[in-house]
Amino acid sequence: MKDRADGRQSNAYELFILVLTVYSLLIMVALVLPLSPPTLKLLGIYDNGICLVFLGDFAMRLLRAPSKRGYFFGERGWLDLLGSIPSFGFFRFSALFRLARLSRLARITRLFRGQRKSEIVRDIVTNRGQYAGFVTFLLAFLVLSLSSVLVLQFESASPQANITTGEDSLWWSAVTLTTVGYGDYYPVTAGGRIVAAVVMLAGIGIIASLASILSRVMVPTDDEAEVDELRELTQQLAELRSEVARLRTDLGARPAEGEGGD
């Protein structure tokens, strides 16, 4: 989480965690729906993966907190930890702990509500690189997970299907999203082919975005250098104004020349 020019941290990471929290709650709802066993197993894999991300988020917040006790109890960090416990398929009752993620959702929502729209827009413009990175990663994960789940659900109803397990579906989604397309697995149902078409189109945009982000990271553009120079000039101008104001105050407080003489 990179600090902004005004010393405050960017909201890009918080937005990433917010969307991931909402998505994890949707997965929790999907796990109680009457879906096919392979689909439910695949959803469980994604849920455990998100749990690992939340565990990392909890550890980072705990390490960065000025008061570890204040974060764990005062800010209800223990709920963050509780909602991050993975099940790995053998601890079924841990699914009830997912409800603790509502605390993380409420905390991040209050953070955004406490800021004015102009501040949020300024933060997005100033840290557009971070937002682009997090949004691209989120889109890739959402497309990958949704497409694999939908295709597996559609294909599991067809006897001619060759995508029959969560591993097959995940592999198919990955190679389709990256526009590789080995052809070893392919959908045979109408619903699966519609999903495949959407994934192909989304993959083109996501790969192009990733290439653009990597190029900006590895080779900074002239615009970024100009922005940095502009920030330095703005800071120097603010310091000069403060110095001039201080000198005016000092000069105004001095007695005029000759005043008090004989």
Overview of the structural elements:
- The protein folds into two domains: 7-125, Four Helix Bundle (Hemerythrin (Met), subunit A) (Up-down Bundle), CATH 1.20.120; 127-220, Helix Hairpins.
- The chain is flat.
- It is 70% helix and 0% strand.
- With 262 residues, the chain is mainly α.
- The chain is built from ten helices and no strands.
- It has helices spanning 12-30, 37-64, 68-74, 77-82, 101-113, 117-126, 128-155, 166-177, 190-218, 222-253.
Which fold name fills CATH's third level, the topology of the largest domain? Four Helix Bundle (Hemerythrin (Met), subunit A)
The rough form would be described as flat
CATH class of the largest domain: Mainly Alpha
- Please tally the β strands and state the result: 0
- CATH architecture of the largest domain, by name, is Up-down Bundle
Structural domain count? 2
Estimate percent helicity: over 70%
Count of DSSP helices? 10
Order of helices and strands: HHHHHHHHHH
Which structural class do the helices and strands define?
A: mainly alpha
Mean residue pLDDT: 81
Quick tags:
262 residues; disordered N terminus; Helix Hairpins; 10 helices; Four Helix Bundle (Hemerythrin (Met), subunit A); mainly alpha; single chain
